[in-house]
Amino acid sequence: MEIGVLDRDGRPVSDVVIVATPRHGADAASPTEPKPHAVMDQLDRQFVPRILVIHTGTPVDFPNSDNVAHQVYSFSPAKRFQLSLYRGHVYPPLIFDQAGLVVLGCNIHDNMLGYIYVTPSPYFGKTGASGTLRLDGLPGGNYEVSAWNPRFNEAKDEITQEVQVGVYAQPPVMLRLTKSLSPELRPTPTKANRNAY
Ligand SMILES: [Cu+2]
């Protein structure tokens, strides 16, 4: 299925988290199967990527590719942690076993801001530069397709669409924002989009 995100003025929006949640109950695809690691790097005093979307239970590596030390932490309920101050070596991975939004900061660099979006659905991705994402391999059935980005001001139900996946090809799913984007990433998600997962 192809999903596109447009802002209020009809322009494509990149780097948007898209999740397709099966309505027929999470076919919680083999929860015991070991998951490949995801990576949240630290490069040029920024988190790379800024926004990482993962399936619940995924281990995340936090390498530091800078020459300066970083100290990564989160106060988010879905994963409270603080890594020790380090550089160079790869810190042992953390497992994100609770769905939710995890906002990352660095104790040394206040302007470092990153997000790990942990979803119980195995069907997810982010829109590319063209504001679109292709999600393949979804079993037939009904899905709730939702979008999230820290610059959104929509509540989850304002940017969610019911989609039926069947045997026939389907037109792209277009999600359109109704509110303006906030100009910058924010350390605290707005009340509207905080429960967006
Ligand atoms: Cu830092």
Give a structural overview.
The strands form five sheets. This protein has a five-stranded mixed β-sheet, with no helix packed on it. A hairpin with a 6-residue loop joins strand 8 and strand 9. The chain is mainly beta. It is built from no helices and 17 strands. The chain has strands at residues 2-6, 17-22, 38-39, 41-43, 46-48, 51-55, 58-62, 72-74, 81-82, 91-96, 100-106, 113-119, 123-126, 132-134, 141-148, 160-165, 173-176. The chain binds copper (II) ion. The site of copper (II) ion has 6 residues, from loops.
Succession of helices and strands: EEEEEEEEEEEEEEEEE
Overall mean pLDDT stands at 89
Number of strands: 17
Instruction: Look at the helices and sheets and give the structural class.
Output: mainly beta
Main attributes?
197 residues; 40% strand
Task: Describe the structure concisely for a colleague.
Strands 6-12-11-8-9 form a five-stranded mixed β-sheet, with no helix packed on it. Strands 13-2-15-16 form a four-stranded antiparallel β-sheet, with no helix packed on it. Helices cover 0% and strands 40% of the residues.
